[in-house]
Amino acid sequence: MRAAWLLLPLVLLGACATQPDANPGSYTLGSGLVTYDALKLAKDKCVAAGGVVRPYTDGGDVYQLSNYQCVIAPKEKAP
Q1: For the segment 17-27, what is each residue's pLDDT rounded down to a tens digit?
Q2: Using CA atoms, how far apart are residues 48 and 71, in angstroms rounded to an integer?
Q3: Which residues of 1-79 form beta strands (DSSP E)?
Q4: Terminal Cα distance for the chain, rounded
């Protein structure tokens, strides 16, 4: 029973960290401030993975990398 109480905060934090509108392959760009070099590096990595960098639409701080995401469209299965 004690282990269940210890795991409960981790489960709740994991639920808070997920993005409901995100595709399975999409991810946030990380943490830290948005600089030209950081954004260019993250954008190049995202494009190489087949994605597009977009800001979250919830009105977050545009100066934080964590408010941007690499949106990777799900691949369609072949018939």
Answers
A1: 544 454 678 89
A2: 12
A3: 27-28, 51-55, 68-72
A4: 48
* Short-list 29, 33, 36, CA closest to 51: 29
| Cβ contact 51:26 at 8 Å | yes
Q: From CA 71, how far away is CA 34, in angstroms rounded? A: 18
DSSP 8-state symbol, 76: P
The pLDDT of 38-50, averaged and rounded, is 93
The answer to whether the CB of 69 falls within 8 A of the CB of 52 is no
Does pTM surpass 0.70? no
Joined together, the tokens standing for residue 67 give 């408010």
